[in-house]
Amino acid sequence: MKGRMKDFTPKSKWLGGFVDPITQTQVRSKDQLKKLMEERGFAKMGEQQVPLLIREHQRKYQYIVSEATIWRKK
């Protein structure tokens, strides 16, 4: 299938979106990003849901909602 995340980024580089093979728990990108940013001295200032419309061709569109986060160096 074209356009899947693993077609663009090797799974070893993913922050989340998979099950931890040892603990069998879901690893979420959002949680991993927070951990990495805090380790590097950033504080999360806020987050916002951002709607996005992607036009694929004349009659086909994708509507998605992304989450944007705002970080500040401590």
Blueprint of the fold:
Elements: H1 5-8, E1 18-19, E2 26-27, H2 29-39, E3 42-57, E4 60-73
Antiparallel strand pairs: 1-2, 3-4
Provide the succession of SSEs.
HEEHEE
Question: Approximately how much helix is present in the residues?
Answer: 10-25%
The chain-level structural class is alpha+beta
Q: Measured on Cα atoms, how large is the radius of gyration?
A: 16 Å
Quote the distance from N terminus to C terminus. Answer: 42 Å
Shape: flat
Quote the beta fraction. over 45%
Query: What is the averaged pLDDT score?
Result: 92
Unreliable spans: none
The tally of strands reads: 4
User: How many strands, what sense, and barrel or not for the largest sheet?
Assistant: 2 strands, antiparallel
The structural domain count equals 1
- Summed up, the helix count is 2
Give the strand line-up of the largest sheet: 1-2
Protein name: Mug158 protein
